[in-house]
Design goal:
By secondary structure, the protein is an alpha+beta fold. Among the domains are: about 150 residues, 3-Layer(aba) Sandwich (Glutaredoxin); about 80 residues, no CATH class. It contains 24 helices and 13 strands. The protein has a 4-stranded mixed sheet. The protein has a 3-stranded antiparallel sheet with strand order 8-9-10.
């Protein structure tokens, strides 16, 4: 739910109750299947997993829960780990005065979303690592992002003193705050039949172009790929092309595919760039980013008749196959930090690196193609970014375009081999059902261009089928945790698209069962829930679900249902699209994928 532009900040004065000293108990995270949680398994903190047992313990001991949320590829999560969570004095404060909870946001995305919303509204900014103090009844009290060790220690002391002084008052304030937030969210969910969702397409285009960086492409100062928005722009504008929007789309997709968001040597995409010029990435590589962008690039290649987009899409598929393929499926992420603790160093090259990896002729080409003689922008060197078009480079190098392209491909392979031989990069090997569903959709889009992907797609489809027991879908193979709405929708759509691409009807049959169950589990009384169980009170049912960096699960399910077709599916889709809400009408940019789908579905009816 987008909140920053729709709500006034709330100010919370946290107060706190008597705490009882109890001996420390075991850290539950030792050997956990999540690499992020497992890395905290040796902390001197008595970490609990999020769940009923932890809340019951908090109620029994009358202690606040301290909930720390992060993910493996998050640089500042690692920093806070080394500064605070291995520190014995911090551990003593947490163990004696709180019930410490450690959460992998990728395993508990709905809890993470709820607490991100809370911190965004109360602080004005949110992110990871996320730190939230929660009452034993489950009401969020106060939260923040990264805190240096000394500041964190002071916060722990202050909150404990206030809780010890008057826990009843603090609990009452937390309940009141929760009611206020729920009321505000409830207002945004008020529905209307007077404004159709499809009719908001024009407003979406207007808002998108108002937010657009028409000089460098993308949106805002930090450049995310914004897949749902760019994809929706492309789809909507294709129906009635506007040259200004076409120009912006070309500018943005060129930046995504050729500048610092893209790994020019190994392929694949980083999560975002920290600067408006797309030069300096935040170096983690997320599976969902790399699963979705090929779909955008394939469509852009067709729409603009521009083969290089298709080449980058296929290169991204190859990257995922080579570096993100796990034993059974694709893994969650590659860390931003190498095994020596240096952010981005795995991807950076100095002039000495180039000389060590290549012969003299190759060095001259590499320096020219990727501008690697520029002054070092980071301690570990520079990120290779192609300096010009192949045509211009060929002219400068006095080579044909074909010779230049072949030489670049050979240099990429050598530089990949060099960094693999001399550096190592931690990986989060979780294999999540929903994110792998996105990959299967991407493989389906790539199959007509690369038939050799058939075996890989069939193997991935088989993995996803193994997570479905006919009634419930697991979030990952490594646990019994039930999937979220996002998991169900992405897996169903991926199986359906792979069925169509591979001409295998058995995948469609399973997808139909998952789709039907998804409607039953997550859509009731004209509203969506994103998980089958929430331990936080005052959750607000959503009439529509906004996009995140991943396409909204609502849109994924509607798209899959439309592909399946039939009277029942069409009735279900129509019941959803019949209602708009205040949030969507105020901020159509956040609901880009739903608006695009609605416009397409309306024209088909």
């Amino acid at each position: 739910m987008p909140l920053s532009q729709l709500m006034l900040r709330l100010t919370l004065a946290a107060s706190l109750s008597s705490s009882v000293f109890l001996p420390a108990f075991a850290n539950e995270l030792k050997g956990h299947h999540s690499p992020y949680l497992a890395m905290h398994g040796d902390d001197p903190i008595a970490w609990h997993s999020w769940g009923d047992e932890a809340l019951a313990k908090a109620r029994k001991e009358n202690k606040l829960l301290y909930v720390s949320i992060g993910y493996f590829a998050c640089h500042w999560c690692h920093v806070m780990h080394q500064e605070s969570f291995v520190d014995p004095s911090i551990a003593k404060q947490l163990n004696e005065n709180y019930i410490p909870i450690k959460v992998d946001r990728e395993l508990n995305p709905v809890l993470d979303k709820r607490l991100i919303e809370f911190v965004q509204v109360t602080n004005g900014v949110a992110g990871w690592p996320l730190n939230v103090f929660i009452t034993p009844e489950g009401y969020p009290l106060v939260g923040s992002t990264y805190m240096p060790r000394d500041h964190f220690s002071g916060v722990l002391e202050t909150i404990n003193q206030r809780w010890s002084k008057d826990s009843a008052l603090v609990m009452e304030k937390a309940k009141d705050l929760s009611k206020q937030l729920s009321g505000m969210l409830g207002i945004l969910e008020l529905t209307t039949q007077k404004i159709s969702i499809a009719s908001q397409a024009a407003l979406f285009l207007e808002k998108a172009m108002e937010e657009a960086d028409d000089l460098q492409g993308g949106f805002s100062n930090q450049k995310f790929p914004n897949f749902p928005q760019i994809h929706a722009l492309l789809e909507i504008n294709a129906k009635k092309p506007n040259p200004e929007i076409d120009e912006f789309l070309r500018l943005t997709i060129d930046a995504i595919s050729t500048k610092g968001l893209h790994d020019a040597i190994g392929g694949g995409f980083f999560r975002y760039t920290v600067d408006p010029g797309w030069k300096t990435p935040h170096y983690e590589k997320m599976l969902y980013t790399n699963a979705q962008l090929p779909i955008l690039l394939f469509k852009a290649a067709d729409y603009f008749n521009h083969k290089p987009y298709r080449d980058v899409a296929l290169e991204t598929i190859d990257f995922m196959q080579r570096e993100m393929r796990g034993r059974d499926a694709f893994i969650a992420s590659l860390s931003a930090v190498d095994n020596e603790g240096n952010e981005g160093a795995y991807y950076l090259y100095t002039e000495d690196d180039i000389r060590a990896a290549l012969n003299k002729k190759e060095q001259a080409i590499a320096f020219a193609v990727w501008d690697l003689k520029r002054p070092p922008e980071q301690v570990s060197g520079n990120l290779p970014i192609q300096s010009d078009s192949i045509a211009s480079l060929a002219k400068d190098l006095q080579m044909t375009e074909a010779e230049t392209g072949k030489a670049i491909d050979e240099l990429k392979l050598k530089l990949q081999q060099y960094r693999q031989a001399n550096r190592s990069l931690p990986k989060d090997n979780k294999q999540l059902s929903g994110w792998n569903g996105l990959v299967l959709s991407s493989l389906a889009a790539a199959l007509p261009h690369k038939p050799a992907l058939r075996q890989s797609g069939d193997q991935l489809a088989a993995f996803l089928l193994s997570l479905w027991d006919g009634e419930r879908l697991k979030r990952s193979a490594a646990s019994q945790q039930i999937g979220t709405f996002q998991d169900y929708a992405a897996v169903a759509k991926g199986l359906l698209e792979w069925s169509n691409a591979s001409c295998e009807p058995r995948y469609a049959a399973v997808a139909a069962s998952i789709i039907d169950q998804t409607w039953h589990l997550f859509y009731n009384n004209l509203a969506w829930s994103e998980t089958s169980k929430s331990l936080l009170p005052n959750s607000v049912a959503q009439s529509h679900i906004a996009d995140t960096p991943i396409t909204s699960p609502e849109t994924l399910l509607l798209e899959a249902s439309a592909m399946l077709g039939g009277k029942l599916m069409n009735q279900r889709i129509q019941s959803v699209l019949a209602l708009s809400n205040r949030s969507l009408n105020a901020d159509p940019f956040a609901y880009a994928s739903l608006i695009s789908f609605s416009l397409t579905f309306e024209k088909q009816e």
